[in-house]
Amino acid sequence: MRHPPEALRAFPLLSQRYALREGGRRPRCGAALARRPARGPGDSHRRSSIGGPEALRAFPLLSQRCALREGGRRPRCGAALARRPARGPGDSHRRSSVGAPGALRGFTLVELLLAIAVMGLLAILSWRGLDGMVRAQETTRQRADELLVLQAALGQWGADLDAMMPIANTTPLDWDGQVLRLTRRSSAVPDEGALVVAWTLRGTQGSGQWMRWQSPPVRTRAEWQQAWQTAGQWARTPGDAERRFETGLMPLVQWQIFYYRGGAWSNPLSSTGTPVAAAPGAPTTAIPDGIRLQLQLPPGQALVGQLTRDWVNPVLGGGRT
Where is average pLDDT lowest: 6-10, 232-236, 251-255? Predict the structure, then answer.
């Protein structure tokens, strides 16, 4: 492309039309051509190596456009280039090793030890709490079982007294200070006969066991006499044959029985509690109007101390104990 004559450079519009008519590309405006210095032999080398003419460095926008046209990357603005310090030989190494973006920082040994100590403390506290809950639940269950056993034993005691039956020329009830023996009717249907029942405290003082013994059904006076003697032997020197019919009820320290006769409570072994002579054909011992049972419960149970239960003869209580 030929350049327009020097006379047309003072007129930008004429200069552009001249260039287009000659088949070249559209040149810059006349003001830019006027400010643009003439190229020398080293201009192309300096432009390719530096990124633009030296005169354009004073104009940031023109400098960026020149760099993009040459295929290079977009440089920073003029203010950023002015503030940015010159790089040294070790700048790239320092940036990659120290200031690299996304670098992760790990935990120190002290931080790990502290975290492990806190986790161990929490585990110990939680274990103690769970252990306390388990112990409390076990204690509650044990106390409930002990109460159920006590209720069952006292219920059986009342049922035996309610079912007492006097038999002619027999003893329906006897207390010798160690064992209580009585004759009661059977609860089976149909009735299989009378039963001999015995209650006693077996064991040393302070660590005894309240026991109950029941004989097989008896139908004759001879069978009753044999069962009555076996009940007394079971309370003192039990054998394997007698132990087959016994039942262990609950721990007990001591027990005592009182009869209610003549409007007062008395010891069955005292003269006040001695029954009067029975009429011929009647039971040798009359059933008292009431029986008081006193139990001394050992410590460590659901109930501790002395427990008293009174029984009233159903004949006097309108059919109720």
Answer: 6-10
Distance of CA 68 to the CA centre of its chain: 71
State the alpha helices, DSSP H only, in 170-291.
221-236, 240-243
Query: 208-214 and 246-252 as β-strands: parallel, antiparallel, unpaired?
Result: antiparallel
Say which residue the tokens 């207390």 belong to.
175
CA geometry: angle at 55 spanning 53 and 58, to 5°?
A: 115
Distance of CA 76 to the CA centre of its chain: 65
Rounded Cα distance, 214 and 249, in Å = 13
Instruction: Give yes or no for a contact between 213 and 236, defined as CB atoms under 8 angstroms apart.
Output: no
Which pLDDT belongs to residue 282? Answer: 47
Name residue 201's beta-bridge partners.
210
Angle at 278 between CA 272 and CA 284, to 5 degrees: 85
Q: What percent of the chain has pLDDT over 90?
A: 37
Does the pTM surpass 0.90? The reply is: no
Written as six digits, the tokens of 216 are 């097989």
**Structure token pair of residue 317:** 């209580």
Quick one: which of 153, 158, 159, 199 has its CA closest to 179? 199
